[in-house]
Amino acid sequence: MAVVALWLALLALLVLPASASAAGSAYVVNFTDKTVSQYAVGTAGELSPLSPATIATSEFGSFNVALTPDGRTAYVTNAGDTISQYDIDPLTGGLSPKNPPTVGGVVEPVGIAVTPDGRSVYVGNQFSQSISEYDIDPLTGGLSPKAPATIATGLSPVAVVVTPDGLSAYVTNQNSNAVSQYDIDPVTGALSPKSPASVSTGTTSQDIAVTPDSRSAYVTNLDDATISQYDIDPASGALSPMTPADVATGMNPSGVAVTPDGQSAYVLSDSSVVQYNIDPQTHALSPKNPATIAAGASANRVAVDPDGRSAYVTNLNDDTVSQYDIDPQSGALSPKTPATVPTGRTPFGLAVGPLPRVPTSKEQCMDDGWRNFPQFKNQGQCIAFVNHGP
Q1: Which CATH architecture has domain 25-356?
Q2: How far apart are CA 213 and CA 113, in angstroms?
């Protein structure tokens, strides 16, 4: 009997899906295919397709994806004036549509951000000069409009970011060359304009990133071949230009991301990644050595995984994601093996997140310990998972 038990245990390990040993999950929105490609993130940061490899979004195409901090829910902005909402499987990272699968209240939504407390979502409406704001149901992860449901921005809001301290939100307005800036109500999560309501950027502002300490922000300017850099006032959260206010990049800068340690920033420029050091005192950008590394054709958006070991870039005209290792000392990028993985057609936005933790013993579920695992509603569900699995 002991031999049989050991054989069965070994067999169980052999038949586990590849994603069960993953370090996280990644999602890429494919505009032309109207799908999200979903991947397991391996222990070395490498991407491998889940099964199924894609899941449907909107019949009109989709732009960006954002994840809740607890790893339970994903949201996708759709050109058909909706937001798709998905549950994330706590073991595999696979997506499945919520009920309902979409919510409205948006007009050509592009940018999307979730607050660090997982209670609110903000969406930039490119053609209506507004931000839609939603509450997140703490049990289901479903969205419902706040009151008010929208708040005004500048012309063509395209990217939204929330500071890691959860106090401020910023929106790039590509046709008014400005960043709208908002306070976040600590109770309701509703937005209200700061004073001033906006600050200037370069020409045709695109993406925006904030440092992990909520002290600095960076905005890419498509037609200026620059990135604007700002200090964030620690009391008010208002932006003010650094000295210098702008730093040169390559042509047509689009996406920007900052590493979790706050030491490096990456900007996409045509078919390359421009990489910068972030000064530990001033937070000003300076080029790394080398200053650039190759990406695919029309590199569009960049994301860094939560542990800061890997970076990923969507390539619009290659239908691929480039994947890189991040040097732990210098922050410089180097291609993984393989250097790219296939996506659907016209990959636009992407997001990377860890899988939710799961309990391994009944003791972890007891004495309110089940609350540490947001996929469970009570202690009984937690213990049942330990006893029987998903």
Answers
A1: 7 Propeller (2.130)
A2: 17
